[in-house]
From TrEMBL:
GO terms for cellular component: Golgi membrane. Keywords: Golgi apparatus, Membrane, Repeat. It is found in: Golgi apparatus membrane. This is PDZ GRASP-type domain-containing protein. GO terms for biological process: Golgi organization.
Amino acid sequence: MFRVIQDHIGKPLDFRVWNSMTQSVRECSITPSTWSGDGVLGLVIKYDDLDFDSTPPSIHVLDIFPNSPSSKAGLQAFDDYLLGTPEVVFVGLEEFDDVILNAPPPIRIFVYNRRSCTIRTIDLAPDCKWGGPGSIGCDVACGILHRIPTETRPVRYVSNGKASSTYTPGNCV
């Protein structure tokens, strides 16, 4: 992938991008170029071979225990879906457990909220001594009964509590 991107500096490069909000794939064209930031795209690309037909990747937050690490991170029961970290997509509970058990805290996690139709990041700090069950203090589930609802409203990306940009499903950002 690195070689292909480098070979396309100044030339359009076509991508197929999975949209977890609409549960669809869209075509997107990006022209790699040198700029003031890192890399030549201005984003991080991670290739994953996922089976989206069975269950789209996400972890549904079901319950938050008071004063837990999840509560302190601002997770919201029933409305939040944990998508992954900058390095790992949560395809199932195995990936989620691996991150919670092995990543150094705090762990940056991308969270979709179905009620506000936003994606935000949280910093979660697992702690087995917080005073309740588990290291993060919440109940989660995945599978067919816990899929991210298909969304047709514009999705807002939130940074530090403020909407940083708006994305309308179907458009390439």
